[in-house]
Amino acid sequence: MKYKAIYLICSIFPLLSQPSQALEICGDKAQGSILLLHEENVHEVQFQNKKITPNKEGDFMLAFDRDDQLKQSLKILYKNDEQNYPVKNFTFTIEPTKWDIQKINGVPERKVTPKKEDQDEILRENQSLRKAIEENNSKTSYWKQGFQMPLKEYRISGKFGGQRIMNTIKKNPHRGLDMAAPEGTEVMAPSDGKVVMTGKNFFYSGNMIVIDHGQGLHTIYAHLKDIKVKEGQEVKQGEVIATVGKTGRVTGPHLHWGASLHNIRFNPEKLIGLIQKDTCINL
Ligand SMILES: [Zn+2]
């Protein structure tokens, strides 16, 4: 009888320690992309030294930097009654992305190699952006209805990840999508969110807005003419937030659209269609 009881415990235990759920992954598994994941009963996700908490539906996102390694792994800690969080490790491969090299000539010299007196301005810009992103992380999943492009009509004039050679000087890779449109064109919120920064006259970005879409996801709008929203304001998808301008370091009017997940910059175009279930696989 005693023997039978021990046998029963041993056969049940593996079921408790080995969660049988399937991890669902949606989106483009590639450098500079973002993925939407879904899993039941998750306590915490550990990815690239970050601890991520899914929303109550079990949704969370992961983004890959431009130069991220192709072999990726994540660790999921599951909820259970004993509160000892059984762990499951997942490994997967992302695709390499080919990046553009863009040559831009005729940029004013002080905008290519900033003068000493411009350095304080650049510092103010970097600190404001970092503060906006790091200190405003809503737990509300504002992003849930999906994303649309922030301009109705545009021409892509600079891709994400491209490296610019300005007046023969190699610059840092481009961390956004440049969308050329006439000055004054309306810029719309691509999804619901909360405005967490409205900055004016930055050295590189000119007039800039940052929107918090929740769960570590932010989008950035730069070189704006007029800003139509205030910090702390909630916005709805399609609502006009600004107009296209040529403020900051530009050669013509365009919107620089940036996206950040847990402070990792990725290609904002990858947000379009992310919510559509036909891109999803089970891992
Ligand atoms: Zn740009």
In brief:
With 283 residues, this protein is mainly beta. It has two domains: 2-97, Immunoglobulin-like (Sandwich); 101-271, Distorted Sandwich (Glucose Permease (Domain IIA)). The protein has three helices and 21 strands.
Q: How would you describe this structure to a colleague?
A:
- The protein is mainly beta.
- The chain folds into 2 domains: 2-97, Immunoglobulin-like, CATH 2.60.40; 101-271, Glucose Permease (Domain IIA), CATH 2.70.70.
- It has 3 helices and 21 strands.
- The chain has helices spanning 2-17, 109-112, 116-135, and strands at 24-27, 34-38, 42-47, 50-52, 59-63, 71-78, 87-93, 101-104, 155-158, 163-166, 169-173, 177-180, 186-188, 193-202, 206-214, 217-227, 234-235, 240-244, 254-261, 264-266, 280-282.
- Strands 9, 12, 13, 14, 15, 16, 17, 18, 19 and 20 form a 10-stranded antiparallel sheet that branches.
- It is globular, with a radius of gyration of 22 Å.
- Mean pLDDT is 90; it is low at 1-19.
- Bound molecules: zinc ion.
- Residues 158, 174, 176, 178, 256 line the site of zinc ion.
